[in-house]
Amino acid sequence: MCTSRCTSRCTSGAKGSRRWQKIPQRDDEDSPHAFTVSYVQRARRAAWRLRDVTFLCADAALCGRWVRTLTEQLSALAQRPRRLLVYINPLSGKRHGERIYRHKVAPLFSRANISTSVIVTQHANHARDHLRTEAELQNYDGVVCVGGDGMFSEVMHGLVLRTQRDQGRDHHHPDQDLAQTGLRIGIIPAGSTDCICFATVGANDPVTSSLHIIVGDCQPMDVCSVHHGDAFLRYSVSLLGYGFYGDVLSDSERRRWMGPARYDVSGVKKFLSHRYYEGTVSYLPASDVLGTPRDRAPCRTGCVVCQYNRPLEEEKEGKLKMEESHEGLAWRSVRGKFLAINAVSMSCACPRSPQGLSPAAHLADGTTDLILVRNSSRLAFLRHLLRHTSKDDQFDLGFVEVHRVRRFRFTPRFCQSDSELDLQELLQEKEQKEKEVAGSQARRILGQLCREHPACCRTPPCASCWNCDGEILPHADIQVRYTTLLLLFLPLLLLLAPLLLLLLAHST
Ligand SMILES: Nc1ncnc2c1ncn2[C@@H]1O[C@H](COP(=O)(O)OP(=O)(O)OP(=O)(O)O)[C@@H](O)[C@H]1O
Ligand SMILES: CCCCCCCCCCCCC/C=C/[C@@H](O)[C@H](CO)NC(C)=O
Ligand SMILES: [Ca+2]
């Protein structure tokens, strides 16, 4: 903080960094003293901007009293972070992560008197492993990741796994409830999809995200745990995608050098290949919850549906046990051929798909929207995909179904122990095909059926892979469970009116 007569205005951030600006000089001897207050104002489409307003005072004493009082009030806001651990992925998106942080984020943190420890990652999983083992978390009020969805996933895994270890929980046990993480995570978008940032903040803007972090908001968030038998695989907060999105991701990994465009190239390639995958999906519907995936009202942070549906900590055990106690009754199964199986714990809105894969999915309601896209024609599937880029209802198609669930399992066909059942069904299908279709077309279809069955084909049966928040899972046979809540630096309630959130006061 610094004061000066009115020939010029000085505002200083932390530790004396100074910014001088001229303000009109007054003629009279008793030039006013002035102080500047920086605040947050809502701009277009959920964007936040930093604004300044300068107050003039008759004398230095009054000016000083104002600045001291404002500073004391701001310092008393316990939810605002003062020390942050920042991880930057230099290879995210278009590789602008470091520049974005240095030019857009660091100056705002400095003006808000936030001290930072910055780590530019040197390899994949650097952030996850550092958080999980070395980071002295007691020295920080929060963790910030600069990158895309994969980078957020790294930081989330590091924090959640560290918390489980510190609290003696076994994350490999599929039914183990997880301990909540104490630290909040802030996301500075610098990736290719950035759907986690976009779906939570409503914008992919580093300044907006920085201001959310500075004012210290807090937003809980659903996390799904994914297991293969008794082995923990990964957590997911956005998309668990099998089939189309799994194939797109695995194909795009070979094109990382293309940056964000890699998804477009792989998306068209996989759309044209039009592969379907057989298997059985079993799911536990979320009973007695408010809202459905077909609602038109999107989830906004602080939404009442989330608060109603999310069991309180003390209720959770009982509520889930009640639903699972009717295991035989409540669980449902769907066996078939799928172009895509997508489980989304949030809307997954992103610049490519502004409404998201499931527009009415909730951020923190303890459920996941399970979207089953059965085999259909290319034209029908294209219609479904294109509806993700408009406001048309992507579920209003005969081959698409969506369920709000708390748990689900998937078993690819030919992975079941009893392949005889499959073989018998396959032979029946062959006979049916032979009756329905004559000539070369029958041979083509039979070739497809044979290529994929272990009894007929030399290569292992085809299966897709799971896209888990942008990472590939090593197994296709998985069990998924809503688990616990993560905390993000996000507003508890997005007020309709422009927000005037006081950020900091400078004497000038
Ligand atoms: N220094 C690094 N070198 C190589 N890979 C890294 C490094 N730091 C992080 N990674 C890995 O890079 C992968 C991609 O990062 P990130 O998700 O941030 O970018 P993106 O894939 O472009 O964005 P999105 O996931 O939103 O599409 C992540 O899986 C992460 O583990
Ligand atoms: C042939 C026309 C196709 C148009 C289809 C547009 C639909 C885009 C939907 C994007 C969904 C994004 C879901 C988010 C997934 C992320 O976890 C992951 C990593 O960031 N990104 C991707 C692309 O898998
Ligand atoms: Ca959810």
TrEMBL record:
Swiss-Prot/TrEMBL GO biological process terms: ceramide metabolic process
The organism's place on the tree of life at top rank: Eukaryota
Domain DAGKc: residue ranges: 79-230
Coiled coil start-end: 416-443
Keyword Transmembrane part of the UniProt annotation: yes
This protein's UniProt keywords: Coiled coil, Membrane, Transmembrane, Transmembrane helix
Recorded GO CC terms: membrane
Transmembrane segments: 482-505
InterPro entries: ATP-NAD_kinase_N (IPR017438), CERK_C (IPR045363), CERK_PH (IPR057465), Diacylglycerol_kinase_cat_dom (IPR001206), Lipid_Phosphate_FormReg (IPR050187), NAD/diacylglycerol_kinase_sf (IPR016064)
Any one Pfam family match given in the protein's UniProt record, by short name: DAGK_cat
UniProt cross-references to PROSITE patterns, sorted A to Z: DAGK
GO molecular function: ceramide kinase activity
The keyword Coiled coil appears for this protein: yes
Entry-linked PANTHER family: CERAMIDE KINASE, SPHINGOSINE KINASE
The protein's name in its UniProt record: Ceramide kinase
Species in which this protein is naturally found: Gadus morhua (Atlantic cod)
Lineage: Eukaryota, Metazoa, Chordata, Craniata, Vertebrata
